[in-house]
Design brief:
227 residues, alpha/beta, Rossmann fold, globular, transferase
Length: 227
């Protein structure tokens, strides 16, 4: 079974390698250039993200106003927004937002360009914030957590599924391959370290479940803002 998991992951990394060949990695607008390839790239792990959604759905309510940070081209936005009152999907890449809008917008779903570390939204505006697989590639994730805390209402919900690169026996192989490709990870948490990081920024951890099958295990973090 482990051999199969490694083969799947190596296949994914090989695909990523082909993607990088088409992109100037030295360009500071990397994510803008990657935007058109992002959605088909992520489809390779659709089953994994479907499982992540299954864990998240019970925490979404029809009366919720939700802010999504680092939404990419809307992978989670379209899957989850129908369960809420309103959903704003944001990304710092303008091209990602353009790609998301091409996929359509619902009455309760809009997309905007925004920097997760410097948000323009009012204090305590949202019932829930989702940030998926982004904190580990931020040089200063603490800044994003402070903004998340600020815009969440008291007792608001944080949904933060995130790659945990130090979980799983095949991690060294994957991390080595990703390093060769030039993929920069600023944070390499394990489950306990990620819990500590979230709690340090004013949240109580409700639960965290591990989902396997992608490049690395995903820790589906559910947390609540201290009132």
């Amino acid at each position: 079974m482990m051999d199969n998991m490694i083969n799947i992951n190596i296949s994914k990394v090989n695909y990523l390698k082909e993607v990088f060949k088409m992109i100037d990695k030295g360009n500071k607008n990397f994510w803008d250039r990657f935007a058109k390839l992002y959605a088909p790239f992520m489809k390779k792990d659709q089953g994994v993200y479907d499982e992540v959604c299954e864990y998240i759905l019970p925490y979404l309510k029809k009366d919720m106003d939700v802010l999504e940070l680092a939404c990419g081209s809307g992978q989670f936005s379209f899957a989850l927004s129908k369960k809420t009152k309103s959903w704003i999907g944001t990304d710092f890449s303008e091209q990602m937002i353009i790609e998301a809008k091409k996929r359509g917008e619902y009455e309760n779903l809009i997309f905007e360009t925004a920097d997760a570390t410097d948000l323009s939204y009012a204090n305590e505006k949202f019932d829930c914030v989702l940030i998926a697989n982004a904190l580990h590639i931020m040089p200063n994730p603490e800044c994003a957590m402070k903004e998340i805390y600020r815009v969440l209402k008291p007792n608001g919900t944080l949904l933060a599924p995130n790659f945990l690169w130090t979980e799983g026996k095949e991690r060294k192989i994957i991390k080595t391959l990703m390093s060769v490709l030039g993929f920069k990870m600023y944070q390499e948490w394990n489950k306990n370290q990620f819990e500590d990081f979230v709690e340090k920024h004013g949240f109580s951890v409700v639960e965290i479940k591990l989902v396997y099958g992608g490049l690395a295990p995903i820790g589906v973090m559910i947390a609540q803002k201290y009132s």
